[in-house]
Specification:
Keywords: 4Fe-4S, Cytoplasm, Iron, Iron-sulfur, Metal-binding, S-adenosyl-L-methionine, Transferase, tRNA processing. With 440 residues, this protein is of the alpha/beta class. Helix content is 32%, strand content 22%. The strands form five sheets. It has a six-stranded parallel beta sheet with strand order 2-1-3-4-5-6, with helices on both faces. A five-stranded mixed β-barrel has the order 15-16-17-19-18. A three-stranded parallel beta sheet has the order 7-10-11, sandwiched between helices. The structure holds 5'-deoxyadenosine (5AD) and iron/sulfur cluster.
Amino acid sequence: MSAAGKTFYLETFGCQMNVHDSEKVIGTLVSQGYRQVEEETAADLILYNTCSIRDKAEQKVFHRLQDYKKLFVEGKRFGVLGCVAQQEGEKIFERAPYVSLVAGSASYHRLPELLVQIESGERRVTGLDDRQTEQTFETEFTARSNPHRGYITIIEGCDKFCAYCVVPYTRGKERSRTSDSVLAEARAMADQGYTDIQLLGQNVNSYRDPLGKKSFAELLTAVAEVTGIRRVRFTTSHPRDFTKDIVDAIESVPSLCDHVHLPVQSGSSRLLKAMLREYTREQYLDRIAWIKSAKRPISMTTDVIVGFPGETAEDFDESLALLEHVQYDGVFAFKYSPRPNTPALHLADPIPDEEKSLRLQALLERQREIQRVNYAKHVGQRLEVMVEGRNTPRGQIVGRSSQNKTVNFTTKHPIAPATGSYLHVEITQSFPNSLVGVMA
Ligand code: 5AD
Ligand code: SF4
């Protein structure tokens, strides 16, 4: 059976890497003759791109596969992609025998051949390359959903093995693309009208050009200097590999956005050691000092884990004090979630779940107040925003600042500005997570 004329449905969960992987998977499928449909009932092939970072994600996938079972008819195919696929592997076939494809992200470069296998009727096709592969998933067929801002993967996988984290097991080992290939993709995007690029990797700071031409900071600069590109962001950074030249680049290249997401995870050096993070509170704060001493203000955001096994009230207070010290513009805080295969799974964890929930709530409340003050500092300023669309309930236009802040604004002009355009907004009001203003 050939794929020509076949339809597929794809649903995506998880991080930006997964969202962008799906764009590449969709492009690959379309290049193989498939057509995307919005309803799973109308699809010959149903794919589910999964995440396993927290919260018993694998159980959710199995529940969801039960729903899919109801759709099963002869000739219809099911596939599980992404982190749960890599983590659970062939066990998925045991629990959901109607699934015929299980593939983790490190195998996507083999997707065309895997598709041929399932279309020819093979029942258990796997792409579970795990940590062996050196290959990255590069394709000219990326189907980006937004015509103005888009992702480019620069490094896949992770070699850090933080004690709580499943990613090194689900996304394989670190492998960087050449800077030539990244720059060619950025230029092609600029030619298509893209102005905003976000460089992606689990740990972008450990980017190593296989041809040795550019460091990470040099690559950032080169992408930001591509004609037509007005904004470049990057995520996620790891404090251990975050170097001063990144701050220098942001300072000197205006199209590098003034925002750094630098996950700290905990403010306690004792806990950072248990988490195998390879830096202390003091070393982390040194990085923050570089960022704070830059000539133009650079917005900072972070990730924090609350309730890691053995976190005492004192450790938690150190996380709170660190938030107070840094004054982040945003914090993604998570309750620790035990993950399969990870070293922390076997640590004694005497903290009751209710206590973890209380800590999480306390941290988020404290951070909300910090953000209320931070965001209020923009009132009276004029910020450049990229227009993203409309906020329908309030009739406002939604834009994003270089610092990655949402700006809801109105305009007296009879014609609303186009999505993707850049303009200036006078900020009149602030909230802990957004700004309000009037087009200048
Ligand atoms: N439990 C809770 N949070 C986690 N994260 C990663 N693994 C876990 C886990 N097992 C958080 C970290 C990371 C973010 C993407 O998710 O804060 O930076
Ligand atoms: Fe989820 Fe991590 Fe996989 Fe992204 S890399 S999909 S966050 S488990």
